[in-house]
Write a structure and sequence with these properties.
The chain is built from 12 helices and 15 strands. By secondary structure, it is α/β, with parallel strands linked by helices. The strands form 3 sheets. Strands 3, 4, 5, 6, 7, 14 and 15 form a 7-stranded mixed beta sheet that branches. It is globular, with a radius of gyration of 22 Å.
């Protein structure tokens, strides 16, 4: 009897540890989708993807919603139903990895992999890094897209700024995803002084990140506040047309204006106005940061994820999960991000009943 019970128990464990054929995933179920309610987004049952050689199948513990995620949805009409699973960021556990050389089953990983708001996702081995030991999976899931974007952008402006004294960096919008991490990374890369803008409700949060000067954008324009030749780097992570020209007077010779691309600027990679300043100052670099090329380069992605991992593990940067939603609440997560008042990041968590390893 004891042996029979043991066999039954063993077979149940083996059954539970197998990868299912179906999963829950968030998809657009109508041709168009937009704020304020994103009614097209629904959680549906779909097939678990199959990994190819060199790809990992990851059981997702959490993902996140970025501004780019809802903007992509708003721009997809009338083809939203063809998009597949939504989301980009994911953190979870590798359950299969045929032909892989760096990852193995059981590894906990993070990455900006696409199709991430689902119970399982496949991704090239070269797009996944090991998560920092100091973060749980939900925290880790909120970092890849904004972290890689900030690393790419600040390095376009010469980071790390070793050997440069009294260097001042401006992060135009501080409290959101690229902003809260961008402030910290600027300091980690050697900035002495970081200037940002925000609303009074975010001031304490911004100071906790290392912001030295905070401008209340309700009362004053950031670049009206800054004196001539007072800063070295402007990281325009908000991307309003004309910011480059308004910023130029404040940037010292040898500095840079870094625009985080959006809309047509993202698509055409232009270095001309309105994607950069129409009238750049002599001696100031005027750069539309090409993040798409960076994200497609596995070597750069892995190196950046490893660099971010080191910064987290040494305490140089921290994460901030402002809100958590369950997978079935994905629509509400998109609404929260589109409203634009998030201090940090929004996470979407999965209710995996069995951890497959």
């Amino acid at each position: 009897m004891v042996m029979t019970s043991l066999l039954v128990a063993t077979s149940v464990v083996a059954l539970e540890a197998s990868v299912p054929s179906k999963m829950q995933a968030a998809k657009a179920t109508s041709p168009s989708c937009s704020a304020p309610d994103f009614e097209c987004l629904n959680v549906v049952q779909t097939s678990v993807p199959k990994p190819k050689q060199g790809q990992a199948l990851v059981q997702v513990s959490a993902g996140s919603v970025n501004p780019s995620d809802y903007k992509i949805l708003e721009a997809c009409a009338p083809f939203c139903k063809a998009m597949g699973v939504v989301g980009n960021d994911a953190a979870g556990t590798v359950v299969e990895c045929p032909g892989c050389t760096r990852l193995k089953v059981g590894d906990t990983v993070w990455g900006a992999v696409g199709n991430s708001l689902a119970e399982f996702v496949t991704a090239d081995e070269g797009k996944l890094g090991h998560i920092p030991k100091t973060l749980n999976l939900t925290e880790a899931a909120t970092i890849p897209e904004v972290g890689l974007t900030d690393v790419c952008s600040l390095k376009a402006g010469g980071a790390p700024w070793t050997g440069r004294k009294n260097l001042t960096v401006v992060v135009t919008s501080g409290a959101g995803g690229t902003g809260f991490l961008g402030i910290q990374l600027a300091k980690a890369y050697g900035a002495t002084h970081v200037v940002t803008s925000g609303s009074p409700s975010s001031f304490d949060f911004l100071r906790s990140l290392g912001a030295d000067t905070i401008v209340d954008y309700h009362k004053q324009d950031l670049f009206d506040f800054l004196p001539d030749d007072s800063v070295d780097i402007v990281y325009d992570n908000y991307g309003t047309e004309g910011t480059g020209d308004r910023a130029m007077h404040a940037i010292r010779k040898g500095g840079a204006y870094l625009m985080l691309p959006h809309g047509g600027c993202f698509s055409n990679k232009s270095q001309a106005y309105p994607c950069t300043a129409a009238n750049p100052k002599e001696g100031v670099a005027n750069i539309n940061v090409i993040t798409g090329d960076y994200f497609s380069d596995s070597a750069k992605v892995l190196a950046s994820l490893e660099e971010l991992k080191g910064f987290f593990e040494t305490g140089k940067i921290q994460t901030r999960v402002a809100q958590e939603f369950k997978l079935e609440e994905t629509r509400a997560a998109y609404v929260a991000v589109a409203e634009g008042h998030v201090h940090g990041k929004v996470a979407v968590t999965m209710e995996n009943k069995v951890v497959v390893v």
